[in-house]
Every structure is written in C-alpha cells, then in structure tokens.
Request: fold
Amino acid sequence: MGKIVATEFISLDGVIEDPGGSEDYVHGGWTFEIDRGEEGGAFKLGEVEEAEAQLLGRVTYEGFAAAWRKMEDDAGFAERMNSMPKYVFSSTLEKAEWTNSTILSGDFATEIAKLKDQVDGVILVAGSAQLVQGLVEHDLVDELRLMTYPCVVGAGERLFGETSDLKPMRLVDTRTVGDGLAHLTYQPVPRNGLVPVVDG
Reply:
C-alpha cells in the first residue's frame, strides 16, 4: 500500500509559488534569501531517497523534467530524480517524455487510489499546488511536510484552497534547520478522532 507524502517549501504567509526562481514569477527564488543549511539539504535528499515514486501535477512535472534531465550532481540527487518512477496527473498532457513517466487521467480520486494500491512505499508529491489541494480534499494525503521559511512573500499561489469540510491535522514532528527554518510534519486525523498509524 502506498503512502502519499506531500512536501512543500512554504512562506509564513502560505505562498509556495516558484520557490526556486524558474517560473518567471516576480517574487521567484524567495527560498534563496534564507540558508536552509546542511541539515535542511540532507533532509530533502533523504525524502527523494526514501521515495518509491513521485506523483506530480502537470506544471511541476514539466518544470522538473526540463531541469532535472540536464543535471548531474555528486550526491546522486539528480540520478535518483531521473530514474525513479514518476506519475503525472493531467487531463491535457498528451506525452510524458521524462524517463519512467506515466500519465494519469480520468476520475481523480479513483486514479490516485489505484496508484496507492499499486505502489508499495512512499509516493512523494513536491510542489504541485492544485494536485495537493485535490489530495487534501479527497483525504488522500498520508503525511504533509512543510519546510517553512521565515519570510512573508506577500503575493503568489498559496498551498491551501477551499475544502468541502474541516480537515484536522496532527503535528507529529518538528525540527529547526538552517537559518531559522521550521520543518513541520503533519498527519491527517479522521473526523472520528482516531489517529491512523502510518508505518515508515
């Protein structure tokens, strides 16, 4: 059974748009203003190493594909990104040319539930705001990791949109990395009050 882990760079005011500065956004690259340190970098590498697959929205998929296919690095991050299975949920993407990529389309909740049945281990979701909003809405996120940068971006796409119901979360881990970044890990709490046990 797959475990969907959504991981985000996020500002204090909830912005996740263009943290790396590659999307031609006026405030793009805001994460570069604050050093996440060696521990923060190691944590992000660890996320990719533990993942069995990636699940991405179309916009993030196309950005990642354009960037990572050209990269090499000593830590093996690029090799792992390029080699692992990747699933992109999109109703408009016709061809996925990045290595080991599969397009998912159709009914969102049904397709994601099938993917969780197919993949044994962590399915990592990075960025992909609309996709994460859909996952939260349909109670398909098993863990939410927010690397919170101590800055106010002021404008831009935010992680959370409207939901049809209250979505309680339980804080399961906190750590401080780099120059005052708070890394917060949450797991959803069912409305019946029972806390799920998620291995790994």
